[in-house]
Amino acid sequence: xxxxxxxxxxxxxxxxxxxxxxxxxxxxxxxxxxxxxxxxxxxxxxxxxxxxxxxxxxxxxxxxxxxxxxxxxxxxxxxxxxxxxxxxxxxxxxxxxxxxxxxxxxxxxxxxxxxxxxxxxxxxxxxxxxxxxxxxxxxxxxxxxxxxxxxxxxxxxxxxxxxxxxxxxxxxxxxxxxxxxxxxxxxxxxxxxxxxxxxxxxxxxxxxxxxxxxxxxxxxxxxxxxxxxxxxxxxxxxxxxxxxxxxxxxxxxxxxxxxxxx
Length: 262
Ligand SMILES: Nc1ncnc2c1ncn2[C@@H]1O[C@H](COP(=O)(O)OP(=O)(O)OP(=O)(O)O)[C@@H](O)[C@H]1O
Ligand SMILES: [Mg+2]
Known about the structure:
Elements: E1 2-7, E2 15-24, E3 27-37, E4 42-46, H1 53-61, E5 68-74, E6 77-80, H2 92-96, H3 105-115, H4 131-143, E7 149-153, H5 161-178, E8 181-185, H6 189-195, E9 198-203, E10 206-213, H7 226-236, E11 256-258
Magnesium ion is lined by residues 53-54.
Domain ABC transporter: 15-229
Family: Belongs to the ABC transporter superfamily.
Organism: Pseudomonas chlororaphis
Protein backbone atom coordinates (compact mmCIF):
# COMPACT_ATOMS: atom_id res chain seq x y z
CA UNK A 1 0.00 0.00 0.00
CA UNK A 2 1.25 3.47 -0.81
CA UNK A 3 0.11 6.55 1.00
CA UNK A 4 1.47 10.01 0.41
CA UNK A 5 -0.08 12.54 2.70
CA UNK A 6 0.56 16.19 2.09
CA UNK A 7 -0.65 18.15 5.09
CA UNK A 8 -2.40 21.36 4.18
CA UNK A 9 -4.14 22.42 7.34
CA UNK A 10 -1.91 21.82 10.33
CA UNK A 11 0.42 24.74 10.97
CA UNK A 12 3.36 22.48 11.87
CA UNK A 13 3.63 18.95 10.59
CA UNK A 14 6.49 16.59 11.17
CA UNK A 15 7.90 14.39 8.45
CA UNK A 16 6.93 10.79 8.91
CA UNK A 17 7.96 7.88 6.69
CA UNK A 18 6.93 4.32 7.33
CA UNK A 19 8.21 1.31 5.44
CA UNK A 20 8.89 3.38 2.34
CA UNK A 21 10.08 1.52 -0.76
CA UNK A 22 11.36 3.05 -3.99
CA UNK A 23 12.83 0.91 -6.70
CA UNK A 24 14.07 1.36 -10.23
CA UNK A 25 13.58 -1.88 -12.13
CA UNK A 26 14.99 -4.62 -9.92
CA UNK A 27 17.05 -2.18 -7.84
CA UNK A 28 15.48 -1.35 -4.48
CA UNK A 29 17.06 1.99 -3.67
CA UNK A 30 14.85 2.72 -0.66
CA UNK A 31 13.95 -0.49 1.09
CA UNK A 32 11.50 -0.24 3.98
CA UNK A 33 12.72 3.07 5.33
CA UNK A 34 11.31 4.61 8.53
CA UNK A 35 12.11 8.22 9.35
CA UNK A 36 10.68 10.95 11.55
CA UNK A 37 11.75 14.56 11.46
CA UNK A 38 10.28 16.86 14.11
CA UNK A 39 9.09 20.37 13.27
CA UNK A 40 12.09 22.66 13.28
CA UNK A 41 14.61 19.83 13.54
CA UNK A 42 17.83 20.02 11.50
CA UNK A 43 18.80 16.58 10.19
CA UNK A 44 21.85 15.79 8.09
CA UNK A 45 21.82 12.76 5.82
CA UNK A 46 25.06 10.95 5.02
CA UNK A 47 25.59 7.86 2.90
CA UNK A 48 27.76 6.42 0.17
CA UNK A 49 27.34 7.57 -3.40
CA UNK A 50 24.37 5.75 -4.90
CA UNK A 51 22.87 4.91 -1.50
CA UNK A 52 19.63 6.71 -2.37
CA UNK A 53 19.97 10.11 -0.70
CA UNK A 54 18.77 12.12 -3.69
CA UNK A 55 16.05 9.58 -4.37
CA UNK A 56 14.75 10.03 -0.83
CA UNK A 57 14.97 13.81 -1.04
CA UNK A 58 13.11 13.89 -4.35
CA UNK A 59 10.29 11.83 -2.87
CA UNK A 60 10.07 14.18 0.11
CA UNK A 61 10.04 17.17 -2.24
CA UNK A 62 7.19 15.67 -4.27
CA UNK A 63 9.40 15.44 -7.37
CA UNK A 64 9.26 11.66 -7.39
CA UNK A 65 6.85 9.06 -6.12
CA UNK A 66 7.30 6.02 -3.88
CA UNK A 67 6.36 2.43 -4.68
CA UNK A 68 4.93 1.52 -1.28
CA UNK A 69 4.78 2.66 2.32
CA UNK A 70 3.55 5.83 3.97
CA UNK A 71 5.07 9.24 3.52
CA UNK A 72 3.74 12.27 5.36
CA UNK A 73 5.12 15.72 4.63
CA UNK A 74 4.01 19.31 5.09
CA UNK A 75 2.64 21.09 2.04
CA UNK A 76 5.06 23.98 2.30
CA UNK A 77 8.31 22.42 1.11
CA UNK A 78 11.28 23.74 -0.81
CA UNK A 79 14.36 22.06 -2.23
CA UNK A 80 17.81 23.38 -3.08
CA UNK A 81 20.21 21.22 -5.08
CA UNK A 82 23.93 21.13 -5.72
CA UNK A 83 23.52 23.34 -8.76
CA UNK A 84 21.30 26.44 -8.43
CA UNK A 85 18.97 25.59 -11.35
CA UNK A 86 18.20 29.19 -12.22
CA UNK A 87 16.55 30.31 -15.45
CA UNK A 88 19.36 32.16 -17.30
CA UNK A 89 16.99 34.58 -19.02
CA UNK A 90 15.33 35.74 -15.81
CA UNK A 91 16.70 38.27 -13.38
CA UNK A 92 17.53 37.15 -9.84
CA UNK A 93 14.29 38.40 -8.29
CA UNK A 94 12.19 36.80 -11.03
CA UNK A 95 13.96 33.49 -10.49
CA UNK A 96 13.08 33.71 -6.81
CA UNK A 97 9.34 33.95 -7.45
CA UNK A 98 9.16 31.56 -10.39
CA UNK A 99 5.89 29.68 -10.10
CA UNK A 100 4.81 31.65 -7.06
CA UNK A 101 1.48 33.31 -7.59
CA UNK A 102 1.13 35.99 -4.95
CA UNK A 103 0.08 39.61 -5.38
CA UNK A 104 3.06 40.87 -3.40
CA UNK A 105 5.54 38.52 -5.04
CA UNK A 106 8.12 41.16 -5.96
CA UNK A 107 8.20 42.46 -2.39
CA UNK A 108 8.64 38.90 -1.17
CA UNK A 109 11.48 38.30 -3.62
CA UNK A 110 13.21 41.46 -2.44
CA UNK A 111 12.82 40.39 1.18
CA UNK A 112 14.15 36.88 0.54
CA UNK A 113 17.11 38.16 -1.49
CA UNK A 114 17.85 40.68 1.24
CA UNK A 115 17.88 37.89 3.80
CA UNK A 116 20.51 36.00 1.83
CA UNK A 117 22.60 39.18 1.43
CA UNK A 118 21.75 39.89 -2.19
CA UNK A 119 19.68 43.06 -1.97
CA UNK A 120 22.18 44.67 -4.36
CA UNK A 121 21.81 41.92 -6.99
CA UNK A 122 18.02 41.90 -7.50
CA UNK A 123 18.25 42.71 -11.20
CA UNK A 124 21.26 40.51 -11.99
CA UNK A 125 21.07 37.72 -14.55
CA UNK A 126 22.35 34.31 -13.36
CA UNK A 127 25.36 34.38 -15.71
CA UNK A 128 26.66 37.43 -13.87
CA UNK A 129 26.45 35.82 -10.41
CA UNK A 130 29.25 33.95 -8.65
CA UNK A 131 28.64 30.32 -7.66
CA UNK A 132 27.93 31.32 -4.06
CA UNK A 133 25.60 34.14 -5.12
CA UNK A 134 23.69 31.85 -7.47
CA UNK A 135 23.27 29.34 -4.65
CA UNK A 136 21.98 32.13 -2.40
CA UNK A 137 19.40 33.02 -5.06
CA UNK A 138 18.36 29.34 -5.04
CA UNK A 139 18.09 29.52 -1.26
CA UNK A 140 15.99 32.68 -1.50
CA UNK A 141 13.71 30.88 -3.96
CA UNK A 142 13.22 28.23 -1.28
CA UNK A 143 12.71 30.74 1.53
CA UNK A 144 10.10 32.76 -0.30
CA UNK A 145 7.81 29.72 -0.11
CA UNK A 146 8.02 29.82 3.70
CA UNK A 147 8.76 26.09 3.89
CA UNK A 148 8.02 23.97 6.91
CA UNK A 149 10.41 21.48 5.35
CA UNK A 150 13.59 22.65 3.63
CA UNK A 151 15.34 19.97 1.58
CA UNK A 152 18.97 20.58 0.75
CA UNK A 153 20.85 18.19 -1.57
CA UNK A 154 24.58 18.92 -1.28
CA UNK A 155 23.88 22.64 -1.73
CA UNK A 156 27.40 23.71 -0.75
CA UNK A 157 29.39 20.96 -2.48
CA UNK A 158 30.37 23.02 -5.50
CA UNK A 159 31.45 26.07 -3.48
CA UNK A 160 34.95 27.02 -2.36
CA UNK A 161 35.85 26.53 1.31
CA UNK A 162 35.39 30.15 2.41
CA UNK A 163 32.08 30.56 0.62
CA UNK A 164 30.95 27.30 2.19
CA UNK A 165 31.70 28.60 5.68
CA UNK A 166 29.67 31.73 4.93
CA UNK A 167 26.84 29.59 3.62
CA UNK A 168 26.89 27.48 6.80
CA UNK A 169 26.46 30.62 8.89
CA UNK A 170 23.71 31.88 6.63
CA UNK A 171 21.80 28.62 6.69
CA UNK A 172 21.92 28.45 10.49
CA UNK A 173 20.80 32.10 10.74
CA UNK A 174 17.88 31.46 8.38
CA UNK A 175 16.97 28.19 10.10
CA UNK A 176 16.87 29.93 13.48
CA UNK A 177 14.73 32.73 12.12
CA UNK A 178 12.23 30.71 10.07
CA UNK A 179 12.37 27.40 11.97
CA UNK A 180 11.71 24.95 9.14
CA UNK A 181 12.56 21.30 9.55
CA UNK A 182 15.69 20.77 7.44
CA UNK A 183 17.00 17.65 5.72
CA UNK A 184 20.51 18.31 4.44
CA UNK A 185 22.22 15.74 2.23
CA UNK A 186 25.98 16.03 2.42
CA UNK A 187 29.15 13.98 1.93
CA UNK A 188 30.98 16.25 4.34
CA UNK A 189 31.01 14.82 7.87
CA UNK A 190 32.25 18.08 9.37
CA UNK A 191 29.44 19.99 7.69
CA UNK A 192 26.91 17.53 9.11
CA UNK A 193 28.26 17.94 12.65
CA UNK A 194 28.58 21.71 12.36
CA UNK A 195 24.97 22.17 11.29
CA UNK A 196 22.68 19.37 12.37
CA UNK A 197 20.76 18.35 15.49
CA UNK A 198 20.93 14.78 14.30
CA UNK A 199 22.95 12.94 11.69
CA UNK A 200 21.53 9.89 9.97
CA UNK A 201 23.36 7.43 7.76
CA UNK A 202 21.59 5.79 4.85
CA UNK A 203 22.76 2.30 3.83
CA UNK A 204 21.03 -0.59 2.10
CA UNK A 205 17.94 1.55 1.61
CA UNK A 206 17.38 2.20 5.32
CA UNK A 207 18.55 4.44 8.12
CA UNK A 208 21.52 2.37 9.29
CA UNK A 209 22.77 4.67 12.06
CA UNK A 210 21.80 7.87 13.83
CA UNK A 211 23.67 10.23 16.11
CA UNK A 212 22.25 13.13 18.04
CA UNK A 213 24.63 16.09 18.01
CA UNK A 214 24.34 17.89 21.31
CA UNK A 215 27.27 20.26 20.85
CA UNK A 216 26.45 23.86 21.74
CA UNK A 217 26.22 26.32 18.86
CA UNK A 218 27.92 28.18 17.25
CA UNK A 219 30.01 25.11 16.50
CA UNK A 220 33.52 24.74 15.24
CA UNK A 221 35.71 21.77 14.46
CA UNK A 222 38.03 22.61 17.37
CA UNK A 223 35.40 22.50 20.10
CA UNK A 224 35.40 19.79 22.76
CA UNK A 225 33.65 16.66 21.62
CA UNK A 226 33.69 17.53 17.92
CA UNK A 227 36.50 15.18 16.94
CA UNK A 228 34.98 12.29 18.92
CA UNK A 229 31.72 12.64 17.00
CA UNK A 230 33.63 12.96 13.75
CA UNK A 231 35.57 9.76 14.40
CA UNK A 232 32.40 7.91 15.31
CA UNK A 233 30.60 9.06 12.19
CA UNK A 234 33.53 8.19 9.97
CA UNK A 235 33.59 4.78 11.64
CA UNK A 236 29.91 4.33 10.87
CA UNK A 237 30.68 5.24 7.26
CA UNK A 238 33.45 2.64 7.19
CA UNK A 239 36.36 5.10 7.24
CA UNK A 240 39.23 4.20 9.58
CA UNK A 241 40.40 7.03 11.83
CA UNK A 242 43.63 6.24 13.64
CA UNK A 243 44.27 9.53 15.37
CA UNK A 244 41.34 9.70 17.74
CA UNK A 245 40.30 7.22 20.38
CA UNK A 246 36.54 7.11 20.53
CA UNK A 247 35.13 6.20 23.90
CA UNK A 248 31.59 5.15 24.66
CA UNK A 249 30.15 7.67 27.07
CA UNK A 250 27.20 7.35 29.38
CA UNK A 251 24.14 9.15 27.99
CA UNK A 252 24.00 11.67 30.81
CA UNK A 253 27.51 12.98 30.17
CA UNK A 254 28.01 12.36 26.51
CA UNK A 255 27.61 14.64 23.58
CA UNK A 256 26.64 11.68 21.43
CA UNK A 257 23.48 9.71 21.75
CA UNK A 258 23.45 6.53 19.73
CA UNK A 259 20.11 5.28 18.49
CA UNK A 260 19.08 1.76 17.73
CA UNK A 261 19.41 0.73 14.14
CA UNK A 262 16.49 2.04 12.08
N1 LIG B 1 15.31 7.74 -12.35
C1 LIG B 1 16.13 6.72 -12.09
N2 LIG B 1 16.10 5.61 -12.88
C2 LIG B 1 16.89 4.56 -12.63
N3 LIG B 1 17.77 4.50 -11.60
C3 LIG B 1 17.86 5.56 -10.81
C4 LIG B 1 17.04 6.72 -11.00
N4 LIG B 1 17.33 7.63 -10.04
C5 LIG B 1 18.28 7.05 -9.28
N5 LIG B 1 18.60 5.82 -9.73
C6 LIG B 1 19.57 4.91 -9.13
O1 LIG B 1 19.30 4.82 -7.74
C7 LIG B 1 20.51 4.74 -7.01
C8 LIG B 1 20.53 5.85 -5.96
O2 LIG B 1 20.69 7.08 -6.62
P1 LIG B 1 20.73 8.45 -5.83
O3 LIG B 1 20.90 9.54 -6.83
O4 LIG B 1 19.56 8.53 -4.93
O5 LIG B 1 22.06 8.27 -4.95
P2 LIG B 1 22.78 9.32 -3.98
O6 LIG B 1 22.88 8.68 -2.64
O7 LIG B 1 22.12 10.63 -4.06
O8 LIG B 1 24.24 9.37 -4.62
P3 LIG B 1 25.30 10.60 -4.70
O9 LIG B 1 25.91 10.69 -3.34
O10 LIG B 1 26.28 10.13 -5.73
O11 LIG B 1 24.54 11.83 -5.10
C9 LIG B 1 21.64 4.81 -8.01
O12 LIG B 1 22.08 3.51 -8.28
C10 LIG B 1 20.99 5.43 -9.24
O13 LIG B 1 21.61 5.00 -10.40
MG1 LIG C 1 22.71 12.51 -4.75
